[in-house]
Amino acid sequence: MIHNRYVRLRSRPCGKIGQDDFELSSMALPSPEQGQLLLKNRLLSIDPGVRNLLGAKEGYLPPIAVGAPVTCSVLGEVIQSRHDAFAEGDLVVGRGMMGEYSVVTPDALCWKVDKASAHTLSNALGVLGNTGRTAYFGLLEVGRPEPGGTVLVSGASGSVGSLVGQIARIKGCRAVGIAGGEQKCRMLRDEFGFDVAIDYLGKSDEELHAAIVAACPDGIDVFFDNVGGRVLDSTLPAMNFGGRVVLCGLISQYDGASPPVMANLFMIVAKALHVRGFLLPQFADRYDEAVAFLEGAIARRELYFREEILDGLEAAIPAFVRQFNASTAGKTMVQLS
Amino acid sequence: MIHNRYVRLRSRPCGKIGQDDFELSSMALPSPEQGQLLLKNRLLSIDPGVRNLLGAKEGYLPPIAVGAPVTCSVLGEVIQSRHDAFAEGDLVVGRGMMGEYSVVTPDALCWKVDKASAHTLSNALGVLGNTGRTAYFGLLEVGRPEPGGTVLVSGASGSVGSLVGQIARIKGCRAVGIAGGEQKCRMLRDEFGFDVAIDYLGKSDEELHAAIVAACPDGIDVFFDNVGGRVLDSTLPAMNFGGRVVLCGLISQYDGASPPVMANLFMIVAKALHVRGFLLPQFADRYDEAVAFLEGAIARRELYFREEILDGLEAAIPAFVRQFNASTAGKTMVQLS
Question: Which CATH class is domain B2-126+306-335?
Fold first, then answer.
């Protein structure tokens, strides 16, 4: 019987989340059932998207119950396998528990990590994992940018957004990023290679729209949106006719406290826009293609992936909460010994 | 020199429009320039979509200036042609003036009417014109319904919506319509053949959502939206994974007075929805296909088109304003002698 220390949801947050909404706890872990794996977690992915699962509403997964473990993407070593495709000792990425161990049921978000790969484990969980694959399929399959086009990215200093801008540049597009604060905007230009960076902090909706128009003199062909709300609303009138809006996340709305007023949705009609949401598992049969592209771009030094790796389970709660204070950039992970 | 009596925009309406925002006036009509046609209007199409052009914001066309003629779709007889493809005496549908005469520049919304056709002129302007073509391409090309699927239509008693429901049924779908009031809901079932009708009047957002869920036990595959706002927001959580939302119009938002609060946009991500706006001219090279389908369906008595034809230019202003009082159904036109 394994005792698992883990992060559990203490109360259902309404509005801004705080560390008090979570607590460390410990539980006797049930043995994996037929078809499941028991993992010793090595790395936890700290993703703002998990915020969706903390509200009372059904999102892309059922809500996490108060008192239940917080789930997240993990990289772990198989210490017990009851699934034919996995053996003890395998390294696996999967949807697990924010804790020392996870019981995982392999699905479209679960795969074996190549131990012979030259890449680090954090790369396997991040740029070659959900993050990089989401950026790849979201931009190229949902957004379908064309060389010479303009790609606007919100949440551009985040783990997915920073990759989207770079993939857009690799594909011959002009990349414009929106982020909060001068420091992040400098990062967009200097580290991630965006052509232009827009700081949304301190700007009214009209000022934000004007800044977007100024940064995109040929209009916007593809908007990759991680933010939603007023950022989306201010962007719609600057889209080109027939443009694509890729909805990857709507971090501004995850707290559910203040649903946004959308004044410009008619632009979807007037400009014949395609607005599409997507989830990574829709592209599960093409993961190899994404990984080959990402590995190639990393090898050619065309893709830079910013990682912050924190130590120990105690770091998970503050790291998760910090995602919503606009104070992080790139990908945050927690390493367990 | 022709003196043209016409409807002009008297003041830029804010919020609900009224008859005072318009007035009848008279002007000396300029001669058509090279490439243009002078039409004697026989029928004026009274479309709520024109409301978009009365605000200060750029929509699908530039706003109509205060004091300028109100434009609309017309059917008229060519009395002077300076375009090689048209001759005097031709009957033409085009984007013209809400008045006795129009000067028209042929474009993707302009075509010759077959005088030998057995159809009435009002059919040529309506069910075989922009209205029917919009319903056809919007539902079948943008919405792509599959037999056995559920198609939800808002503004379902309107000129486009009433055809969309019938085309959905022809294609083997279940058609559910939303309209305002018991009389219109009866019309949806009895005249237009919808499987179920939902009355949105007097319902809170939660009640509307619950009514939609109850009317669509298998979820919604295609939502054809003419309304936007709370109707759209209440529908999103009832969509099936990968469903399509066709944005044809957003009549609830045309007054620009109270942009809607949208609480459920994350459903676009969580359910991987396709939300698409469109404009009829995008399908200009396939008009023949739509007309053949619509004529066939009319001949087989599978398609019922409700028309209200009013007499004289004086009727145009009250008819247009009435579109926004939820008191009309089907297609309204004005006939000029």
Answer: alpha beta
With beta carbons less than 8 A apart as the criterion, state whether B153 and B161 touch: yes
Handedness of CA B49, B54, B57, B63 (dihedral sign): positive
Q: What ipTM, to 2 d.p.?
A: 0.95
Residue for token digits 């006036």?
B25
Cα atoms found within 13 Å of the Cα of residue A167, Cβ hemisphere only: 32
d(CA B253, CA B228): 7
* Residue burial B196-210, b: 16+ Cβ < 10 Å; e: rest: bbbbbeebeeeebbe
* Cα–Cα separations (whole angstroms), residue B117 to B75, B121, B123, B124, B245: 15, 9, 10, 9, 35
Third-level CATH fold of A131-280: Rossmann fold (3.40.50)
DSSP letter assigned to residue A123: H
Nearest to B265 among A250, A266, A273 (CB): A250
Do B277 and A272 lie within an 8 Å CB cutoff? yes
Q: Cβ atoms within 10 A of the Cβ of A207, count? A: 12
B329: left (phi over 0), alpha (psi -120 to 50) or beta: beta
Reported as a single tens digit per residue, the pLDDT across A195-248 is 999 999 999 999 999 999 999 999 999 999 999 999 999 999 999 999 999 999
Q: Any chain A CB within 8 A of the CB of B282?
A: yes
Say yes or no for a CB contact (<8 Å) between B262 and A260: yes
Overall residue count recorded for chain A in this entry = 337
Cβ-nearest to A279 among B254, B259, B272: B272
Q: Name the DSSP class of A130.
A: H
Distance CA(B95)–CA(B111), nearest Å, equals: 10
- Report how far residue B70's alpha carbon sits from residue A178's, in angstroms, rounded to the nearest whole number: 40
Which among B226, B251, B266 is the top mutation candidate for probing chain A, defined by the most A β-carbons within 10 Å of its own β-carbon?
Answer: B266
Q: Are B205 and B174 in contact (CB under 8 A)?
A: no
Residues of chain B with pLDDT under 70: none
Q: Is A237 an 8 Å CB contact of chain B?
A: yes
The residue type at A100 = E
Spans of all domains in chain B: 2-126+306-335, 131-280
Neighbours of A174 (CB within 10 A): 21
| B228 close to A (CB below 8 A) | yes
| pTM score | 0.96
Asked whether the beta carbons of residue B270 and residue A237 sit closer than 8 angstroms, the reply is: no
